[in-house]
Design goal:
Elements lengths: L7 E12 L5 E17 L4 H5 L8 E6 L10 E5 L2 E10 L6 E8 L6
Antiparallel strand pairs: 1-2, 1-4, 2-3, 3-6, 4-5, 5-6
């Protein structure tokens, strides 16, 4: 993996609950990191066949480890004006250099 393959920009976001001046709670996005990522959509490759257990995942993201930040499934990734819920997080080959995230695209509700 190199920066040449990481040619897409994305943001790692955390949903934060805050209160307004009247004491009502609301959720707000807090951007933790803007970064370059490698993004791969779900398709019929051998790699995705091996990931069949994650049937809800629609995209795979790889990016460099962020110092002092542990990426968890509580976060959201935004990329190309789309939102993705993180399904799983894995340290690539256990070397602590890259993170691989499987994520599910969030579809807006119509109604």
């Amino acid at each position: 993996m190199s920066f040449g393959n990481m040619n897409t920009f994305a943001q790692l976001i955390k949903r934060v609950t805050k209160k307004d001046k009247d004491g009502f709670a609301f959720e707000e996005d807090e951007i933790l990191k803007s970064m370059r990522v490698y993004r791969e959509g779900r398709h019929g490759s051998l790699r995705w066949a091996n990931l069949a257990t994650f049937s809800t995942a629609t995209d795979l993201f790889r990016f460099r480890v962020i110092p002092n930040l542990e990426v968890t499934t509580d976060y959201i990734i935004t990329c190309d004006n789309e939102r993705f819920e993180i399904v799983s997080v894995e340290n690539v080959k256990g070397k602590g250099m890259y993170i691989e995230v499987l994520a599910k695209k969030v579809e807006p509700a119509h109604g």
